[in-house]
């Protein structure tokens, strides 16, 4: 069986250390690929630290994987050895329920549901292990093709951060003539600005402070606002057709809803940890919608990668070594990363 070097955490209060894990020998329709880079998503941190409930330890997180195919099963038709590939937040689903048939595998309603890339039980009954490792075996239908023009380190974060923003921006029709605000300028937010601008929308950033304004404008925003300034919400009343919030900390939904135009939508993809109070009159007074969205299906993820290649988009990353993961987690929580840490598995 293929062996992978990995970084695992042993408990919610533990820290990451180097270890080895076993991967499956690829079955007839599976692909074994060498992971070259793996992004660090804030979800990895919430999961590893037990903030979203008990995790399966030892845990190898990582759901932004980019690499190169090492070996393919005898019936694999979609990929060949040497292809540049990626895997995002899930590695399997039932393939036959209504949601899977509609290309919404992230909402699989079949037995076992969506099989997440880590902290989940696979079809073989064993815990899944994610991208902080040197290789992985995945069913070909859940593997994405990374366009040649996108460097692998900058491609990795597209597999979660990219699709998490692309999917709602497309679903709620960001484009020419639409005013879109992205709340939060982190790993998710910076991709949201780039993608919404490439879709042709007029893009504003709503951040806590003005400290990332120059970057926001470079990414394609034409307006930048700080919630720390007292009159921001008043100034932005009924300003946007669509607001996408990427904030995972405490969020004032009612104030943000006030910035949405009549018939507009506020979409949350940031998953605040605590329940958020909602004043329903903020919806009724302007026929506003409040919605959520979670990554995207396989076909849409491929579409997003191709869109990014076509428009010259990728993530802005800082490449780190395996030994840096513990420190990187603290820096992500402190919003010190610009804008995604990506682990170079060659350092394992
Ligand atoms: Zn993620
Ligand atoms: Zn399904």
The arrangement of helices and strands along the chain is: EEEHEEEHEEEHHEHEHEHEHEHEHEHE
Q: Please name the CATH architecture of the largest domain.
A: Alpha-Beta Complex
Q: Largest sheet, described in full?
A: 7 strands, mixed
Mean pLDDT: 97
CATH evolutionary superfamily of the largest domain: Medium-chain alcohol dehydrogenases, catalytic domain
- What oligomerization state is this entry in? single chain
**Ligands, deduplicated:** zinc ion
CATH class of the largest domain: Alpha Beta
Rg measurement, Å: 20 Å
CATH topology of the largest domain: Quinone Oxidoreductase, Chain A, domain 1
Low-confidence stretches: none
Percent helix range? 10-25%
State the secondary-structure class. Answer: alpha/beta
Q: Terminal Cα separation, in Å?
A: 19 Å
- Our estimate of the beta-strand percent is 25-35%
Features:
348 residues, alpha/beta, Rossmann fold, seven-stranded mixed β-sheet, 11 helices, 17 strands, binds zinc ion
At a glance:
The chain is built from eleven helices and 17 strands. It has two domains: 3-158 and 316-347, Quinone Oxidoreductase, Chain A, domain 1 (Alpha-Beta Complex), CATH 3.90.180; 161-292, Rossmann fold, CATH 3.40.50. It has 348 residues and is an alpha/beta fold.
Describe the overall structure.
By secondary structure, this protein is α/β, with parallel strands linked by helices. It folds into two domains: 3-158 and 316-347, Medium-chain alcohol dehydrogenases, catalytic domain (Quinone Oxidoreductase, Chain A, domain 1); 161-292, Rossmann fold. Helix content is 23%, strand content 26%. It has helices at residues 42-48, 98-101, 152-155, 161-171, 187-198, 213-219, 232-235, 253-257, 281-284, 298-310, 325-333; strands at residues 3-9, 16-22, 30-39, 65-72, 84-87, 90-92, 115-116, 135-139, 144-145, 179-183, 202-207, 223-226, 240-245, 260-268, 289-292, 317-320, 340-344. The strands form four sheets. Strands 3, 4, 5, 8, 9, 16 and 17 form a seven-stranded mixed β-sheet that branches. Strands 12-11-10-13-14-15 form a six-stranded parallel β-sheet, covered by helices on one side. Helix 4 crosses helix 5 (187-198) and helix 4 crosses helix 10 (298-310). It is globular and about 60 Å long. The two termini are 19 Å apart. 49% of the residues are buried. The mean pLDDT is 97. One zinc ion binds at residues 93-94, 97, 99-100, 108-110.
